[in-house]
Structures are given as structure tokens and as C-alpha cells.
Amino acid sequence: MEEKGLTTNKTTRSKISNKTNNAGDNKDFQRVANQVSGITILGNVILSIFKLIAGVVAHSNAMISDAIHSASDVFSTIVVIIGIKFASKESDKEHPYGHERLECVAAIILSMVLFVTGIAIGFEALKNIVQGNYGDLEVPGILALAAALVSIITKEAMFWYTKSCARKIDSSALMADAWHHRSDAFSSIGALVGIGGARLGFPVMDSIASLVIFGFIVKAAYDIFKDAIDKMVDHSCDEETEKQIRECIIKEKDVVCIDLLQTRVFGNKIYVDIEIGVDSSKTLKEAHDIAERVHEKIEGEFPKVKHIMVHVNPIDI
Predict the structure, then answer these.
(1) pLDDT tens per residue, range 9-26
(2) Which H helix or E strand runs over 270?
(3) Rounded-to-integer distance, Cα 94 and Cα 123, Å
(4) Which of 80, 81, 267, 60 has its CA nearest to residue 180?
(5) How many Å apart are CA 276 and CA 250, to the nearest integer?
(6) Which of 7, 205, 223, 305 could be bridged to 311 by S-S, CB 3.0 to 4.6 A?
(7) What is the mean pLDDT of residues 126-130?
């Protein structure tokens, strides 16, 4: 039988400790993100200039499209830097729950840039295919083929490097940027196949490659957009994490049952609301201490959990 419950949040000591830890985490978060972004911006600027020159000199529309894709990476990485900078800000009076969702905004903007880039590339490729005058299409030179190979190797290396760092600091925007690099690597594979086919006597293959690149870009844009939106609308965390949190709570010897467990993803953090059943014969202080132990146990075992609210329901045993 349930009666009025006791709700407990963090103690003052816990708040001070978390504030200190969050400040340190935010500095490390921003340092790693800035380091990765600086390296990828430099790499993309050099790569996009090289591919653009190769595309123009070697008369390859696929390589020019690929160069535009790489150039969009520079802009998207700048968006990521700005998003992460604002997301790393500490809570304030106007934003008591923090600024983590601003990183999702950066990911959404990045997905829009990707989508518009893909549409532009796809439209030009489709126009060349539909017009049917394939004999008028120029055959790409060997330089375009070499540029495609260099791009595949470089962008794949950028993907693994950025992905590794994104996992290290748990950044959705940085992970989105990693997949942007992977989509560029795929588009370069398409360019390689198209340029190779054109040089073997099928000029239209260069334009078909551009169309394939369009598909990869749009798919990547959709995946990034969907992930960011899920984190913006208080989507619950994955079932496995909720299961682990539930098991962590029920291990507390004085917890009779779990009446409610709700989670929501807030940027790259998790917020948890819990209702636990406790023996109604416990004093107010005892019930509060039980709730605090549950709170501290979850906080200790799940680093991504930023905020926990524990509500105690008295149960007649």
C-alpha cells in the first residue's frame, strides 16, 4: 500500500563535488574536441584544394563533386567546434540543466549542410545522365584517379581518428563529424569507380559516380539528423542501460521494490527519475539515507548520468 512519499535529490556536498568534476570534464571535453577539429579542418582544406585542382585539370565532375563534399567538411567541423564550445558551458540561472542540447543543434545544422551539398551534387549528375549526349562528356585524366585514391585513404584515417576521440569524450556532434568523414570516403570510392569506368570507355560512369555520392551523402545526413532529434526530444536511453540501472537499484538491501524508473537523454547525458518502495516502519532519516545510497550508487556506476531524482514510497510489509 502506497502513502505519501519522500523525494530526495543531491546533497550539497554531492552538488559541489559534481560541479568540480563537471568543470574538469568540460575542459577535457573541449580540449579533445578542439584538437580533433583543428587537425581535420587542416586536412580537409588541403584535401579539398587538391581534389578540386585534380578535378578541373583532369576534367572529372565526380572529383569536383567530391572536392565540394570535402570543402563542406570544413564548414561542418567549424559548426561542431561552436556547438561543443557552447555545450561545454556550465549551468547558469537561465539554463539550470546545462547546455548539452546545443551540441545536438550543431549536429542538426551539420546534417542540413550535408543534405544541401548532396542535393547539389545529385542534381548536376542527374542532368548529365538524362541529357544522353555521353559522347560529349570528357574522359577524366589519371590525376583524378590518383586524387580519389588519396582521398579514400585520408578520409578513412580521419574517420577512425575522429570516431575514437568522439567515443572518448562521448560527443554526438564529433561522432556526426566522424561519419561525415566516412561518407566522404565512400563518395571517393564512388568517384574512383566512376573515373575508372570513364577511362575504360564509359564516360557516363563519371556522372553515375556523382549520383552514387549523392546517395551516400543524403543517407549520412538523415542518420545524423535522426540521432540529434532523438536527443532533443527527451528520448529514453537504451533498454540495456535501463536494465543495468534497475539491477543496480534492486541490489540495495533496503529497497523493497522499484515502482518507477524513467530515463531521458539530454545531449550526451542521462537524467533518471526513480520511485522506490521502502518499509513504511523506517524513520524519515532512514528513508532519506536509503535514497541517498541509491543515488550515490547510480552516480558512481553510470558516469553518463548527470541528474538523479529518487522518490521513496512507504510500503507496508
Answers:
(1) 543 334 434 444 444 556
(2) strand 269-279
(3) 44
(4) 80
(5) 9
(6) 7
(7) 78
- Residues 30 and 157: their CA atoms lie apart, in Å, by 22
- C-alpha to C-alpha distance for 22 and 17, rounded to whole angstroms: 9
* Domain of residue 148, CATH code: 1.20.1510.10
Indicate which CATH number applies to the domain containing 311: 3.30.70.1350
Check whether residue 146 and residue 294 sit in a common domain.
Answer: no
Please count the CA atoms within 13 angstroms of the CA of 285 that sit on its side-chain side.
0
Residue 40: domain span: 12-232
pTM metric for this prediction: 0.55
Which amino acid belongs to residue 60? S
Element (H, E) at 98: none
Instruction: Find how far residue 172's CA is from the centre of its chain.
Output: 2
CB 222 within 8 A of CB 250: no
Q: How many domains does the chain have?
A: 2
1 domain residue, yes or no? no
Question: What's the pLDDT tens digit per position in 136-153?
Answer: 566 778 898 899 899 999
d(CA 308, CA 246): 13
